[in-house]
Amino acid sequence: MNSVDRRSFLRFSALTGAALGGAGLLAACGSGSSTSSNGSTDDGSKFGKVAIQLSWIKNIEFAGEYFADSKGYFKDAGFGAVDLVAGGAASTSVEAGLDTGKIWLGLSAPQTTAPAVLEGLPAKIVGATYQKNPFAIVSSAGKPIKTPAEMKGRKIGVQDTNQLIFSALLAANGISPGEVTVVPAQFDPTPLANGEVDGWVSYVTNEPITLAAKGFANDHFLFADFGLPLVAETMTVSQHTIDNERDKLKAFLTAQIKGWKDAVASPAESARLAVEVYGKDLKLDLAEQTAEATAQNDLVVSASTRTDGLLTMSDALIEQNIAALRTAKIDIKADQLFDLSVIREIYAENPGLE
Fold it and tell me: Does domain 49-131+230-349 correspond to CATH entry 3.30.360.10?
């Protein structure tokens, strides 16, 4: 499989010093889509065409969007077309795309959006696909690291773009940097398999699965379970959209909710859409994508979403995220970063969606 080894965390690069570089980031060019941020009704649809930037390549992580598109939920909601723009290490950030008007909505993360908001970007998070952040420490099953405390005295492979969030994990658990040996790493976890390090900063839906597929039995723990309960794959939009395009936003999120309900119910079809349709050029492995889709459900579905609905965030979870950001030295207030009123209106008006 083209695992595009994580990798991943380049998209959360606002946790690195480089991504905190200020106005230069927000002034960068957009996603490359020619779609206006306000859409176009030239096609005769109610809301026209919109560009939605994904946080990464078109793999299993966006199964809900694939369902919403392929099953016509977006069109039924009034959109002429929804352009799913792939993200990735070389792409412009969602926040820059919003700032330049190249995209209408993007999938991002609190630790990426918050610094941009603090620097003046008028944007908010209006929903969250992943209720638990997928960052994890993966280790050998023979010498497992099951808690942050068990990292003490061990060698941990940490990618440059993940240094700050790893430091936040240490701080959240009262571990001084000197108690852990950080080994600079890339995104290929081979050094873990070879025994060069004891643990590896990873994405729970990626490296543990790809390593197991290669015969390397492994264990892991989630950052979210140890003081960093950051959500991920968050829907981020401009304040203008919330204030002036509320019906349009509600229509989009409603279609997205329907898509994610289907994705959760059918990991196999989610994987097929990723492998054979939306990510066809990536040569993804169907078995691995199916396994990742199954694992992903544990991040998408929580006790709260079972009662409040998918993509929602409870007030308690919002406050946990604000506290986690503070641990990562990002000080922002909840009402500066989050606005869940739109999605809560959707569920109040459509109780059958829950």
Answer: no
- Which of 306, 308, 334, 330 has the alpha carbon at shortest distance from 320? 334
Strand partners, 124: 237
What the block records as the tokens of 259 is 């898509």
Question: In which band, very low, low, confident or very high, does the pLDDT at 34 lie, cut at 50, 70 and 90?
Answer: very low
**For the segment 78-97, what is each residue's pLDDT rounded down to a tens digit?**
999 999 999 875 578 899 99
pLDDT score at 180: 98
Please report how the helices 246-265 and 63-70 are oriented relative to each other, as an axis angle in degrees rounded to 10.
110
pLDDT score at 56? 87
Contacts of 21 (CB under 8 A, 6+ apart): none
* Domain 135-225 fold: D-Maltodextrin-Binding Protein; domain 2 (3.40.190)
**Is the alpha carbon torsion for 318, 324, 328, 331 positive or negative?**
positive
Helix axes 163-172, 315-327, angle to 10 degrees: 110
